[in-house]
Design goal:
Elements: H1 4-27, H2 36-39
Length: 67
C-alpha cells in the first residue's frame, strides 16, 4: 500500500507533462496539416535542369581510363 504514495504523484506528474506537451504542440501549429506529410513521398519531384555534359577525353575512344 505504501507504493501508492509514490505511484499516484508520479502518475500525476506524467499526466501534467503530457498535457503540457499536447498544448505546446497545438499552440505551435503541429496539427494544422495532417494530410500532406503522408502524401509527400508519393509526389514526383520536379526535374532539375542538368548542365550539358562535357565529353571527357576517354569517352570518345574505346580505351579504359587509367586509374
Amino acid at each position: 500500500m505504501n507504493i501508492l504514495l509514490v505511484l499516484i504523484p508520479v502518475t500525476m506528474v506524467i499526466v501534467i507533462v503530457a498535457v503540457a506537451i499536447f498544448f505546446w504542440a497545438v499552440n505551435h501549429q503541429q496539427f494544422d496539416d495532417l494530410d500532406s506529410p503522408g502524401v509527400l513521398p508519393l509526389m514526383e519531384e520536379a526535374e532539375t535542369e542538368k548542365p550539358p555534359h562535357a565529353a571527357t577525353p576517354h569517352e570518345d575512344t574505346d580505351q579504359v581510363a587509367p586509374r
